[in-house]
Amino acid sequence: MKVQTVGVVGSGTMGAGIAQIISQNGFSVLLYDINKEIVTRSLTRIYSQIDKLFEKGKLTESESHDVKTRIRTTVQLADLQVCQIVIEAAPEIMEIKQTIFQDLDRHCPNETILATNTSSFSITEIAGFTDHPERVAGLHFFNPAPLMPLVEVISGLRTGEDVMERLADFARSINKSPVTCKDTPGFIVNRIARPYYNEALRIMGDQMASPAQIDRIMTKAGKFRMGPFELQDMIGVDINFATTESLHQGFFGDARFRPHYYQQRMVQSGQLGRKSGGGYYEYDR
């Protein structure tokens, strides 16, 4: 089935970024969220990003207009039945994903691929909420979605091989570099990344160095583009903490993935990073 329209469920930072990059590569996008105010605010942010690309000369005026017109919005999940692929980018709360996938399974034709952008939840478990688990897979983008080239394509225990092939082809069609993997906690990238965050938190907790010092060492000496604390602030401290918790549980309490209490305190205090105006660093809102 030729992909013409892609549905995106959830219009937060990740969902909006996914919708933008898909539209930039010529596909129609149907962006869903729970109410008109949220999805309208998201569309305004997307338009602002597209305008910046035009101002930088990366899009012509005609191209920027076309990108904008290819994105439509809805507050009715049933409207996504016209899509050949639906990508769920809702909050990392399993109960929310369960409801979404049960509804999508009911509304969308059997040929529609249902993908989740989860960074840590089990694809197999999410697929189990549907009557057609063979059409459910992971399609994990990285933040910011328009810029980061890697996409993980993850198979659950019952995901069809044709679904994996179609998602990998789709990822390439939007100029991403897909890597396929099995359904294990954290998949590839988040499993590798946990020590990057956790050891930094332990070093800070032991008062050996400050977040700014650790970030400077990792960027200057380690040649990372962003330090672990700056990166947490960009991703969202709450999202990062939830991912660590999920991996720790997924590996049955393996000490390698144990969360740090200070990160929990940051979440409890509402210091979530850039989106809240402050995390390990302060930001203008």
Question: What does this protein structure show overall?
Answer:
Residues 5-184 form the 3-hydroxyacyl-CoA dehydrogenase NAD binding domain. Residues 186-283 form the 3-hydroxyacyl-CoA dehydrogenase C-terminal domain. This protein is an alpha/beta fold. It folds into two domains: 5-182, 3-Layer(aba) Sandwich (Rossmann fold), CATH 3.40.50; 191-275, N-(1-d-carboxylethyl)-l-norvaline Dehydrogenase, domain 2 (Orthogonal Bundle), CATH 1.10.1040. The chain has eleven helices and eight strands. Helix 6 links the parallel strand 7 (150-155) and strand 8. Helix 1 (13-24) crosses helix 2 (36-55) and helix 2 (36-55) packs antiparallel against helix 3.
In short:
This protein is α/β, with parallel strands linked by helices and 285 residues long. Helix content is 46%, strand content 14%.
Essential attributes:
alpha/beta; Rossmann fold; 2 domains; eight-stranded mixed β-sheet; 11 helices; 14% strand; globular
Q: Estimate the helix proportion, in percent.
A: 40-55%
By CATH, the superfamily of the largest domain comes out as NAD(P)-binding Rossmann-like Domain
What is the global morphology?
globular
| Class from helix and strand fractions | alpha/beta
Quaternary state reads: single chain
The biggest sheet amounts to: 8 strands, mixed
Task: Describe the secondary-structure layout.
Layout: E1 5-9, H1 13-24, E2 28-32, H2 36-55, H3 61-69, E3 71-74, E4 85-88, H4 94-107, E5 113-116, H5 123-127, E6 136-140, E7 150-155, H6 161-173, E8 177-182, H7 189-205, H8 211-220, H9 228-235, H10 237-250, H11 261-268
Parallel strand pairs: 1-2, 1-4, 2-3, 4-5, 5-6, 7-8
Antiparallel strand pairs: 6-7
Helix pairs in contact: 1-2, 2-3
